Amino acid sequence: MTPREWWHLCDRANGTTLITVPLDEPSRVIAITHLLRTQVLHVRELGILVEDSWQGQGLGTVLAHYAVDLARTHTLDCHEITAMTGSGNQRMLSILRGLRARVTGRDGPTLDTVIQVEA
């Protein structure tokens, strides 16, 4: 990722970026969560990256639920969240099922999903 791409992701005008660090290693980034604006009004895109050694421990689930809660409570113009994942990514599919995401499209091995934010 180029510095320009990084700053685009972290620009508050483009959405919200959360950095996760372990308590005992505050200089080590173990996850990045993005809730970014899209070109569609009232729709944000969810992106979560979790370091390999931290996967399978529930961190991605907690971060995904936190991002949706954040959209419900602080991102008042957000009605839906889109998320894209590989059709074989069982961990992410499980997280998305827990968020009641619905599949809206499939492009080869990639699934597009939507999470309703408004109750």
Strand order of the largest sheet: 1-2-3-4-6-5
Uncertain residue ranges? none
What is the beta-strand fraction? 25-35%
Largest sheet: 6 strands, mixed
Task: Give me the count of strands.
Answer: 6
Arithmetic mean pLDDT: 91
Give the end-to-end Cα distance, rounded to a whole number of Å.
36 Å
State the secondary-structure class.
alpha+beta
Q: N-to-C SSE series? A: HEEEHEHEE
**Count of DSSP helices?**
3
The helix content is 25-40%
The rough form would be described as globular
Query: What is the CA-based Rg, rounded?
Result: 14 Å
Word description of this protein:
The protein is of the alpha+beta class. Strand 3 (43-50), helix 2 and strand 4 (80-86) form a beta-alpha-beta unit. The protein has a 6-stranded mixed β-sheet with strand order 1-2-3-4-6-5, with helices on one face. The chain is globular. The chain has helices at 3-10, 59-73, 90-98; strands at 15-20, 31-37, 43-50, 80-86, 102-107, 110-116.
Detail the topology: elements first, then pairings.
Blueprint: H1 3-10, E1 15-20, E2 31-37, E3 43-50, H2 59-73, E4 80-86, H3 90-98, E5 102-107, E6 110-116
Parallel strand pairs: 3-4
Antiparallel strand pairs: 1-2, 2-3, 4-6, 5-6
